[in-house]
Amino acid sequence: MSTTPESSAPKALIQARDLSKEYREGGRTVTALHSLDLDIGEKDYLAIMGPSGSGKTTVLNLLGALDTDYGGSLRFNDSEVKSMKRNELAGFRNQTVGFVYQSFHLLPHLSVLQNVALPAHFARNGSPDRKELTKRANHLLLRVGLDGMQQRKPLHLSGGERQRVAIARALFNQPRMILCDEPTGALDDATGDSILGLFEELNEQLGVTIVLVTHDQVVADRAHSILRLRDGRLDSAPEEES
Description:
CATH superfamily: P-loop containing nucleotide triphosphate hydrolases
Radius of gyration: 18 Å
CATH class: Alpha Beta
Protein backbone atom coordinates (compact mmCIF):
# COMPACT_ATOMS: atom_id res chain seq x y z
CA MET A 1 0.00 0.00 0.00
CA SER A 2 1.24 3.47 -0.83
CA THR A 3 -0.03 6.99 -1.23
CA THR A 4 1.92 7.86 -4.37
CA PRO A 5 2.32 5.87 -7.59
CA GLU A 6 5.66 4.33 -8.50
CA SER A 7 6.46 3.24 -12.04
CA SER A 8 8.16 0.05 -10.83
CA ALA A 9 5.27 -0.98 -8.56
CA PRO A 10 2.51 -3.32 -9.75
CA LYS A 11 -0.74 -1.67 -10.78
CA ALA A 12 -3.00 -0.94 -7.84
CA LEU A 13 -6.30 -2.73 -7.34
CA ILE A 14 -7.74 0.54 -5.98
CA GLN A 15 -6.35 3.97 -6.84
CA ALA A 16 -7.67 7.16 -5.27
CA ARG A 17 -6.48 10.59 -6.35
CA ASP A 18 -7.58 13.84 -4.71
CA LEU A 19 -10.51 11.90 -3.23
CA SER A 20 -12.92 14.09 -1.27
CA LYS A 21 -16.40 13.89 0.19
CA GLU A 22 -18.81 16.66 1.19
CA TYR A 23 -22.34 16.60 2.57
CA ARG A 24 -24.92 19.11 3.73
CA GLU A 25 -25.75 19.45 7.41
CA GLY A 26 -28.04 22.11 8.86
CA GLY A 27 -27.69 24.37 5.83
CA ARG A 28 -23.89 24.20 5.76
CA THR A 29 -21.41 22.14 3.79
CA VAL A 30 -19.27 19.74 5.78
CA THR A 31 -16.13 18.21 4.29
CA ALA A 32 -15.77 14.64 5.53
CA LEU A 33 -12.70 13.81 3.43
CA HIS A 34 -10.01 16.12 2.06
CA SER A 35 -7.97 15.26 -1.08
CA LEU A 36 -6.85 11.74 -0.17
CA ASP A 37 -4.35 9.96 -2.42
CA LEU A 38 -4.22 6.20 -1.87
CA ASP A 39 -3.13 3.03 -3.67
CA ILE A 40 -4.30 -0.39 -2.49
CA GLY A 41 -2.72 -3.35 -4.24
CA GLU A 42 -3.66 -6.99 -4.69
CA LYS A 43 -3.17 -8.96 -1.46
CA ASP A 44 -2.71 -5.83 0.66
CA TYR A 45 -3.85 -5.82 4.27
CA LEU A 46 -4.52 -2.22 5.34
CA ALA A 47 -5.80 -0.91 8.68
CA ILE A 48 -7.43 2.53 8.80
CA MET A 49 -7.30 4.30 12.18
CA GLY A 50 -8.49 7.63 13.54
CA PRO A 51 -10.78 9.20 16.14
CA SER A 52 -14.54 9.37 15.72
CA GLY A 53 -15.42 11.66 12.82
CA SER A 54 -12.00 11.34 11.18
CA GLY A 55 -13.36 9.91 7.93
CA LYS A 56 -12.66 6.19 8.44
CA THR A 57 -16.13 4.93 7.60
CA THR A 58 -16.42 7.48 4.79
CA VAL A 59 -13.36 5.95 3.13
CA LEU A 60 -14.74 2.44 3.61
CA ASN A 61 -18.09 3.37 2.07
CA LEU A 62 -16.37 4.93 -0.93
CA LEU A 63 -14.07 1.93 -1.43
CA GLY A 64 -17.08 -0.37 -1.39
CA ALA A 65 -19.09 1.82 -3.81
CA LEU A 66 -21.79 2.25 -1.18
CA ASP A 67 -21.38 5.98 -1.84
CA THR A 68 -20.47 7.23 -5.32
CA ASP A 69 -21.02 10.95 -4.71
CA TYR A 70 -17.41 12.03 -4.30
CA GLY A 71 -14.89 14.48 -5.67
CA GLY A 72 -11.64 13.50 -7.33
CA SER A 73 -11.00 10.06 -8.75
CA LEU A 74 -11.55 6.57 -7.37
CA ARG A 75 -10.63 3.77 -9.75
CA PHE A 76 -10.96 0.01 -9.42
CA ASN A 77 -8.85 -1.84 -12.00
CA ASP A 78 -8.72 1.40 -14.02
CA SER A 79 -12.53 1.80 -14.01
CA GLU A 80 -13.84 5.00 -12.41
CA VAL A 81 -16.35 3.95 -9.75
CA LYS A 82 -18.68 6.94 -10.08
CA SER A 83 -18.90 6.35 -13.84
CA MET A 84 -20.24 2.82 -13.40
CA LYS A 85 -23.88 2.23 -14.32
CA ARG A 86 -26.32 1.02 -11.68
CA ASN A 87 -26.07 -2.63 -12.72
CA GLU A 88 -22.27 -2.39 -12.83
CA LEU A 89 -22.22 -1.00 -9.29
CA ALA A 90 -24.53 -3.75 -8.08
CA GLY A 91 -22.26 -6.36 -9.66
CA PHE A 92 -19.17 -4.72 -8.17
CA ARG A 93 -20.63 -4.76 -4.66
CA ASN A 94 -21.92 -8.31 -5.00
CA GLN A 95 -19.07 -10.01 -6.86
CA THR A 96 -15.91 -8.04 -6.11
CA VAL A 97 -16.28 -6.76 -2.55
CA GLY A 98 -17.25 -8.54 0.66
CA PHE A 99 -18.42 -6.59 3.71
CA VAL A 100 -17.93 -7.48 7.38
CA TYR A 101 -19.45 -5.29 10.10
CA GLN A 102 -19.18 -5.02 13.88
CA SER A 103 -22.89 -5.87 14.29
CA PHE A 104 -22.72 -8.91 11.93
CA HIS A 105 -25.92 -8.04 9.95
CA LEU A 106 -27.16 -11.64 9.89
CA LEU A 107 -30.83 -12.40 9.21
CA PRO A 108 -32.18 -14.02 12.40
CA HIS A 109 -34.91 -16.07 10.69
CA LEU A 110 -32.42 -17.77 8.36
CA SER A 111 -30.11 -20.64 9.27
CA VAL A 112 -26.35 -20.27 9.28
CA LEU A 113 -26.18 -22.03 5.92
CA GLN A 114 -28.84 -19.76 4.41
CA ASN A 115 -27.11 -16.63 5.71
CA VAL A 116 -23.82 -17.68 4.13
CA ALA A 117 -25.44 -18.40 0.76
CA LEU A 118 -27.48 -15.17 0.77
CA PRO A 119 -25.19 -13.25 -1.67
CA ALA A 120 -26.04 -15.77 -4.41
CA HIS A 121 -29.63 -14.57 -4.44
CA PHE A 122 -28.50 -11.06 -5.37
CA ALA A 123 -26.15 -12.18 -8.13
CA ARG A 124 -27.09 -11.39 -11.72
CA ASN A 125 -25.87 -14.61 -13.28
CA GLY A 126 -29.05 -16.63 -13.65
CA SER A 127 -30.85 -19.00 -11.29
CA PRO A 128 -28.47 -20.41 -8.68
CA ASP A 129 -28.03 -24.18 -8.46
CA ARG A 130 -29.12 -25.16 -4.95
CA LYS A 131 -26.72 -28.11 -4.66
CA GLU A 132 -23.78 -25.99 -5.76
CA LEU A 133 -24.74 -23.20 -3.34
CA THR A 134 -24.99 -25.65 -0.47
CA LYS A 135 -21.64 -27.22 -1.35
CA ARG A 136 -19.95 -23.80 -1.48
CA ALA A 137 -21.55 -22.65 1.79
CA ASN A 138 -20.52 -25.88 3.54
CA HIS A 139 -16.95 -25.47 2.31
CA LEU A 140 -16.78 -21.92 3.66
CA LEU A 141 -18.26 -22.91 7.01
CA LEU A 142 -15.60 -25.60 7.28
CA ARG A 143 -12.92 -23.04 6.45
CA VAL A 144 -14.09 -20.63 9.18
CA GLY A 145 -14.41 -23.40 11.77
CA LEU A 146 -18.20 -23.73 11.88
CA ASP A 147 -18.76 -27.14 10.31
CA GLY A 148 -21.76 -28.80 11.96
CA MET A 149 -23.56 -25.54 12.69
CA GLN A 150 -25.30 -25.22 9.33
CA GLN A 151 -28.85 -25.41 10.65
CA ARG A 152 -28.44 -23.22 13.72
CA LYS A 153 -30.01 -19.77 13.84
CA PRO A 154 -27.82 -16.71 14.57
CA LEU A 155 -29.45 -16.15 17.99
CA HIS A 156 -28.05 -19.50 19.11
CA LEU A 157 -24.46 -18.55 18.28
CA SER A 158 -21.79 -16.70 20.24
CA GLY A 159 -20.52 -13.32 19.03
CA GLY A 160 -17.39 -14.89 17.58
CA GLU A 161 -19.41 -17.55 15.78
CA ARG A 162 -21.72 -14.90 14.29
CA GLN A 163 -18.72 -12.97 13.02
CA ARG A 164 -17.35 -16.13 11.40
CA VAL A 165 -20.69 -16.62 9.66
CA ALA A 166 -20.48 -13.01 8.44
CA ILE A 167 -16.97 -13.63 7.11
CA ALA A 168 -18.07 -16.81 5.33
CA ARG A 169 -20.94 -14.85 3.77
CA ALA A 170 -18.52 -12.10 2.67
CA LEU A 171 -16.40 -14.76 0.95
CA PHE A 172 -19.29 -16.53 -0.79
CA ASN A 173 -18.89 -14.85 -4.18
CA GLN A 174 -15.09 -15.10 -4.02
CA PRO A 175 -14.43 -11.35 -3.71
CA ARG A 176 -11.05 -9.83 -4.38
CA MET A 177 -11.39 -7.46 -1.44
CA ILE A 178 -13.04 -7.57 1.99
CA LEU A 179 -13.95 -4.32 3.77
CA CYS A 180 -14.28 -4.60 7.54
CA ASP A 181 -15.82 -1.97 9.85
CA GLU A 182 -14.68 -2.61 13.45
CA PRO A 183 -15.04 -6.39 12.98
CA THR A 184 -13.68 -7.18 16.47
CA GLY A 185 -15.34 -4.29 18.29
CA ALA A 186 -18.12 -6.42 19.81
CA LEU A 187 -15.87 -9.36 20.69
CA ASP A 188 -13.69 -10.25 23.67
CA ASP A 189 -9.92 -10.24 23.20
CA ALA A 190 -9.51 -13.98 22.66
CA THR A 191 -12.36 -14.18 20.13
CA GLY A 192 -11.15 -11.05 18.36
CA ASP A 193 -7.68 -12.57 18.10
CA SER A 194 -9.10 -15.68 16.42
CA ILE A 195 -11.03 -13.53 13.93
CA LEU A 196 -7.87 -11.58 13.07
CA GLY A 197 -6.06 -14.88 12.58
CA LEU A 198 -8.76 -15.87 10.11
CA PHE A 199 -8.31 -12.60 8.19
CA GLU A 200 -4.57 -13.28 8.00
CA GLU A 201 -5.23 -16.76 6.60
CA LEU A 202 -7.57 -15.37 3.97
CA ASN A 203 -5.03 -12.74 2.99
CA GLU A 204 -2.02 -15.06 2.88
CA GLN A 205 -3.60 -18.24 1.52
CA LEU A 206 -6.34 -16.90 -0.77
CA GLY A 207 -4.77 -13.55 -1.66
CA VAL A 208 -7.84 -11.57 -0.56
CA THR A 209 -7.17 -7.85 -0.08
CA ILE A 210 -8.25 -6.76 3.42
CA VAL A 211 -9.13 -3.18 4.41
CA LEU A 212 -10.04 -2.91 8.06
CA VAL A 213 -11.31 0.09 10.03
CA THR A 214 -10.47 -0.02 13.72
CA HIS A 215 -9.86 2.21 16.75
CA ASP A 216 -7.72 -0.50 18.39
CA GLN A 217 -3.96 -0.22 17.94
CA VAL A 218 -3.47 -3.91 18.73
CA VAL A 219 -5.83 -4.83 15.88
CA ALA A 220 -4.17 -2.35 13.50
CA ASP A 221 -0.72 -3.72 14.27
CA ARG A 222 -1.72 -7.05 12.72
CA ALA A 223 -2.13 -5.42 9.30
CA HIS A 224 0.65 -4.90 6.74
CA SER A 225 0.26 -1.12 6.89
CA ILE A 226 -1.70 1.53 8.81
CA LEU A 227 -3.40 4.63 7.44
CA ARG A 228 -4.18 7.26 10.09
CA LEU A 229 -6.86 9.88 9.51
CA ARG A 230 -7.80 13.00 11.42
CA ASP A 231 -10.54 15.45 10.41
CA GLY A 232 -10.77 13.83 6.98
CA ARG A 233 -7.06 14.20 6.25
CA LEU A 234 -4.01 11.99 6.45
CA ASP A 235 -2.70 12.42 9.98
CA SER A 236 0.70 11.03 9.01
CA ALA A 237 2.36 9.05 6.27
CA PRO A 238 1.16 5.45 6.09
CA GLU A 239 3.15 3.12 8.33
CA GLU A 240 4.45 -0.11 6.87
CA GLU A 241 4.44 -2.88 9.46
CA SER A 242 7.48 -5.10 9.82
